Amino acid sequence: MSLASPFTSVPTARPQRQRRDASGAAMKFRDAAQRRQWFEQRLEPLLDRLYGNALRLTRDPDDAEDIVAEAVGKAWTRLDELRDARRFEGWLFHILTNTFISEWRRRQSRPKPAPGGEPPTPDDLDIASFTLFQQLHQPFLLWWASLEEQFFNGLLQEDLQRALDSLPDPFRLAIVLVEVQGYTYLEASRLLGVPLGTVRSRLSRARGLLQKQLWEQAREAGVIADQGRPGQGGSPP
Amino acid sequence: MSARDLNCEEVIERLFDYLDQELDAQQAADIDRHLHRCRDCFTRSEFEKRLRARVAAAGTASAPPRLQRRIRHLLDQFNGDESDTTR
Ligand SMILES: [Zn+2]
């Protein structure tokens, strides 16, 4: 048998890279009513993602509503700065993120944490090297693929949200900016005001923490039994 | 830079940079090539892609009707202000 190649691949569902700047030719509106209609038509299909992004950033439904409303207000008043209608989405999400980050930094600056160094990771036993894959993938056993299926089938959106929300801020923000919002490492480093290397190390620890959290949650829920043996409590496929 | 054969360890080391599209075209092509012929790394890569698709999906949540009303109200207010100033 020849090496199975190309293997079948799942579609990449990473967030789209966005053009977030507002360069290009200025947009013209006939009148206030047309401007309003144009804005609302584009805003409406984005609202669930705006709110979802805001929830992941703030972890709090009230705060999330506040920053969405604030970002929408800013976007509306600055709409004339947007030069290219096609960039509305990236531009709007960037306003949302900036709104959150400035508020977050303001809150951070109040109690001064110990100077220098990375914030401690809970259970910091080389967390960056933890991988769910290794927990689920046991090549000498034939059912590993079904264990992976079991894990993904049992993994609810709430589980993921809970796991993400459980990460300490610096790690959570790194992963939300990059994996949820699609920022580049460089953009994330500018937004967070930390060096590129710090973004990298936070990301890798964030992934380790997230995967460990998911693994523990799956075992608690009985989706994955101890010793990696399939449990009985998983959701039906 | 020319094409380079990577070993599995090098591929796994750069896998997240690859998935995050942080590699240059040549580095990404080197990884593509390896994933095309190594089932182990391919399987790992598919697993991580699948997981991050779920992470990305956590960025969508049903906006409460209250928020939608709040936004409409906000825009009404701005509209009101603008027509005031033009009067
Ligand atoms: Zn390999």
Descriptive overview:
The complex is a heterodimer of chains A (237) and B (87). Chain A has 237 residues and is mostly helical. Chain A has helices at residues 32-43, 47-58, 61-77, 88-108, 132-136, 144-154, 157-165, 169-180, 185-192, 196-220. Chain A is elongated, with a radius of gyration of 21 Å. Chain A starts with 31 loop residues before the first helix and ends in a 17-residue tail after the last helix. The relative contact order of chain A is 0.12. Chain B is built from four helices and no strands. Chain B is elongated, with a radius of gyration of 24 Å. The model of chain B has no long low-confidence stretch (mean pLDDT 90). Chain B is mainly α. At the A-B interface, helix 1, helix 2, helix 3, helix 5 and helix 7 of A face helix 3 and helix 4 of B. Bound molecules: zinc ion (ZN).
Bound molecules: zinc ion
Shape of chain A: elongated
**CATH-defined superfamily of the largest domain in chain A:** Winged helix-like DNA-binding domain superfamily/Winged helix DNA-binding domain
Strand and helix order of chain A: HHHHHHHHHH
What's the average pLDDT of chain B?
90
Sheet bearing the most strands of chain B, described? none
* Proportion of helical residues of chain A: 55-70%
CATH topology of the largest domain in chain A: Arc Repressor Mutant, subunit A
Count helical runs of chain B: 4
Low-confidence runs of chain A (pLDDT<50, min 5 residues)? 1-6, 227-237
Rg value of chain B = 24 Å
List the helices and strands and how they pair.
The complex is a heterodimer of chains A (about 240) and B (about 90).
Chain A: H1 32-43, H2 47-58, H3 61-77, H4 88-108, H5 132-136, H6 144-154, H7 157-165, H8 169-180, H9 185-192, H10 196-220
Helix pairs in contact in A: 2-3, 2-4, 3-4, 7-10, 8-10, 9-10
Chain B: H1 8-19, H2 25-37, H3 39-57, H4 65-86
Pfam families (chain B): zf-HC2
Organism (chain B): Billgrantia campisalis
Protein name (chain B): Anti-sigma factor
